[in-house]
Amino acid sequence: MATQSGCYESVTDFYANTDVFLTGGTGFLGKVLIEKLLRSCPDIGRLFVLMRNKRGKSIETRVTELFDCPLFDRLKEENQSAIGKIVPIYGDIAQPRLGMCEEDIQRLSNVSVAFHLAASVRFDDPLRDAIKANICSTQELFEILKSTATKLRAVVHVSTAYSNPENRYVEEKLYPPKFDWKKITQAADRYDTETLDAIAKKLSSNSPNTYTFTKGLAEQVCNDYSSELPLAIVRPSVVLFSIDEPICGWVDNFNGPTGMLISAGIGITRTGYLPPRNRINIIPVDVVVKMVILAAWKRGTIERAVGPKHLPIYNSAVSYQQSLEYQEMLVRAKDYLFHVPFSRMIWVPRGFPTDSKALYCIMLLFTMLLPCYLLDLLIRLVGYKPFLMKLQSRIYSSEVALRYFTWHEWTFETKQANNLPCLLDEKDRTIFGWEMPDSLTGKYLENAYIPIRRYLMKDPDETIPQAKRKLARRGL
To answer: Could you tell me the pLDDT band of residue 476, with boundaries at 50, 70 and 90?
Structure first.
């Protein structure tokens, strides 16, 4: 595939000797993006990663801990020196100028590619916090890049496929704004948290939560800056386990379906209030990362000479047929869990989701709340701190926050996203292309259970035989 200059520039050449700036590098998607860039683009320049001190740990300590993660084992085997290309930059996305000092901002003068992944993904954030993290941070980044990064070739903003959730068929286009993003950022500076929360529903046109509302407005920020910056938007659906690399089935958080599968696996969750036949649109994290990398490559090569206001949008999602049906996902999950059960299982995994509110309430009371309450009493009697009811409360709050998404279904147009690998030559397609199975319910889901057990539950593989015997005894 030739660029407009008539010469194909490979993906690895595009990133060679190129300084990259990344926000959100310590998140699930960000870690996988860092690993892929360093491993598959070995000649990449410096990789500036915005970080803040956390739990008393400096950004330098956090970088060291980042590379202690098993996710980077393959990189360390193939190219240990690549780790030295990471340059942590102190900052905070909720602050003006991203909380960066002027000296660090000037260090970005040679940046050619920027990825904006950082966001608050909590659905229940106060509106003011969500505005600061998701809208203001986007504008602040663009202002910094516009004034500092004179060699900029591409900026990729990672949004969400649910930024306009009222549309059940989501096209790869920008949708009309629900509000003026400039006015709402001014409101965040003018009013306190309580005042904004009191009028949140009116401001957000009854959006289901502050996350989708502010992510939708962040896309409008991209639109307004598209005449000044070479921008592209990638909208992932529900980002989950890797399908291929660098570790098959890799996941490092308990968010969304992962938390649901784990709580079901230890026997805590026995039911859920949702239509069992509804589907969830899951996209593997390594596929999203490749789309993000290619979106920047295409914007900086093939689309380099396009006119102003060009804003390509890529829906990173699977087809309806490839998506996961909740009931089938949970049934298969129970089968897998009987093959590789968790050692810290409290009860045998059982139960089922239902769309009957009455049945859900009965099951919630008698199979989840009452057993946990009684076991907490026993735990307290023997002198330990009870924890099960607190855990159930967190699980219930998470389930309520997700109800809007479990009770609705979406279909996503993915023509532009799926066309990205077709633009590559054979060598690049081998490294940055992807193939998706007809259904993600089979091997994709099955391959995630050992990594979940090993890395999230901290359950060594050697304990599987013992866990199976424990499950057999409790299942009698």
So the answer is: very low
